[in-house]
Amino acid sequence: MEENNDKIRSNWEDIGLDNDFLFGKVMQDPDLCKEMLQRTLPDLAIERIEYVEPQKSIDPDADAKGIRLDIYVRGADGAAYVVEMQAVNTKELPKRSRYYRSITDLQLLDKGIHYKKLSRIYIIFICLFDLYEKGRHIYTFQETCQEDKDILMGDGAVTIFLNANGTMNDVSDELKAFLDYVAGKEPMDDPYIAKLDKAVKKAKMNRKWRREYMTLYMRDLENIEIGKEEGRKEGRQEGRREGRQEGRQEEREDGVKILIETCQEFGEDERQTISRIQTKYAVSSEEAQRYVAKYWKK
Questions:
Q1: Phi, psi (degrees; rounded to nearest 5) at 160
Q2: How far is CA 52 from CA 22, 75, 83, 140, in A?
Q3: CA angle 121, 124, 129 (to 5 degrees)
Q4: What does the alpha-carbon distance between residue 88 and residue 184 come to, in Å, rounded to a whole number?
């Protein structure tokens, strides 16, 4: 336990704005949040922010998947901004953005209110990776007519993926300074970045937030260990079944698929997963690679 606590304390000291927990805390400051949004959306005149709600949970109903947003913001004009810090490419961000939008729309549209009253909504992911691998700092999506690209559907929804490691000269110096800071690069001579850096340092001195982070981090570690143990048990069961029914390729396929899904869920990369398949099923590296190519979720 003490070893885990030391690890968590060390982790807290090392995290930066790219950590979703710290990002949510720092962006509670309406001025810092407003400037971040203004740099991302320079064509908008964001007069003021009505409120910022960090780590907002939305649970539509008992049967639907709930979500927890890093930052949920309402502007003075009613526009809604959902902002997520994303350090790892989970391969499903476009579809997650679709779900975020639908669930957030349910929050915006009270029962009995006409659809035309739906506010504008901006879903923004700040990524430490290039989701579309084109070198851009920003990818902005709006619904367009496929027959005439100049026609926008006009539903008031915009989805943006920011890439903190972009290489193109495609954004303002102000937005690039912010993204560079997220990526851990040396801060530029920029008043906003200086304020942001000061806020990050101050947040990391907040004992209440550190305790909250340690609690959440410990819970996540425990959940991961529980999940891994369940995966190991399921793997052993599959292994015993393989021994009893040797030669049945269908059983092996099911077991390998479960193992790959478990490894991917808990953040292991393809190389580690290939090694696990080789060890568990006594197959060659080439055969293990074929399984990963078949079942790894891109």
A1: -130, 130
A2: 14, 9, 11, 23
A3: 160
A4: 15
Report residue 5: phi and psi, to 5°: -60, -40
Q: Give the span between the Cα atoms of 108 and 196, in whole angstroms.
A: 30
Q: What's the count of helices (H) and strands (E) in the chain, helices before strands?
A: 10, 6
- Tell me the C-alpha distance between 246 and 18, whole Å: 48
Counting every residue written for the chain, the total comes to: 298
Query: According to DSSP H, which parts of the chain are helical?
Result: 2-14, 20-26, 30-40, 93-108, 173-182, 191-203, 207-244, 249-265, 270-281, 285-295
**Distance (Å, rounded) from C-alpha 198 to C-alpha 180?**
16
Tokens representing residue 41 in the block: 């959306």
- The tokens for 105 are 């729309």
d(CA 124, CA 161): 6
Report strand pairing: 80-86 vs 49-58. Answer: unpaired
What beta strand segments (E) does 6-62 contain? 49-58
Q: Within 10 Å of residue 296's Cβ, how many Cβ atoms? A: 17
Measured distance CA(167)–CA(53) in Å, rounded: 32
Task: Tell me the one-letter amino acid at 282.
Answer: A
pTM: 0.69
Q: Which residue, among 71, 74, 92, 73, has the nearest Cα to 22 in the 3D structure?
A: 71
**Which among 20, 48, 21, 43 is positioned nearest to 33, based on CA atoms?**
48
Instruction: Locate 165 and state its tokens.
Output: 């490691």
Run means of pLDDT, 10 residues per run, the chain, 298 residues: 47 85 91 95 86 61 54 85 89 88 74 69 94 96 93 92 96 96 86 95 90 72 54 57 52 75 72 79 81 83
Q: Are 23 and 85 in contact (CB under 8 A)?
A: yes
